[in-house]
Design a protein that fits this description.
about 140 residues; alpha+beta; 2 domains; two-stranded antiparallel ribbon; 4 strands; about 15% strand; extended
Length: about 140
């Protein structure tokens, strides 16, 4: 649920530091009450916890509002079109051809090409939202 944040929480909460795949004991920086509060938030199925679109802010959203926003975006036919079936198996050869052309013409290097090709086994993608944070206009 938390990704990198979860690793950080685990390190901070439980007092272990990951150094080159080995754990050493360190001083936790959260009180037992704060640890309990984090666990309660993590286990609450009525909310969604996501990183914001900018900065290092974390946003807590009502699950129903989060789902409503996702559906609102997906049903906007200006940007999304419902497909009858997944297309990634058909588009992968096209992507490889384009990337090979970019590599052959020295627009990208081998490391970039490897990164852009991704895993050898293509997979469907997951739709998720990053909540927008707006600066206070008074500041």
């Amino acid at each position: 649920m938390f990704g990198k944040l979860g690793e950080t929480l685990w390190i901070c909460v439980y007092g272990f530091e990951n150094t080159r795949n080995s754990f050493k004991k360190c001083q936790p920086n959260l009180s037992p009450d704060e640890v309990q509060a984090l666990q309660e938030l993590k286990n609450n199925t009525q909310i969604v916890i996501k990183p914001a679109d900018k900065g290092s802010a974390i946003v807590i959203l009502d699950r129903q509002q989060y789902l409503w926003e996702g559906y609102r975006q997906l049903y906007n036919t200006k940007y999304y079109k419902k497909l009858d079936k997944p297309i990634y198996l058909e588009t992968m050869p096209m992507v490889k051809t384009i990337l090979q052309s970019l590599y052959d013409n020295n627009f990208i290097n081998a490391k970039q090409m490897t990164y852009l090709l991704g895993n050898k086994e293509p997979r469907g993608r997951i739709f998720h939202l990053l909540p927008k944070i707006h600066k206070d206009p008074a500041k």
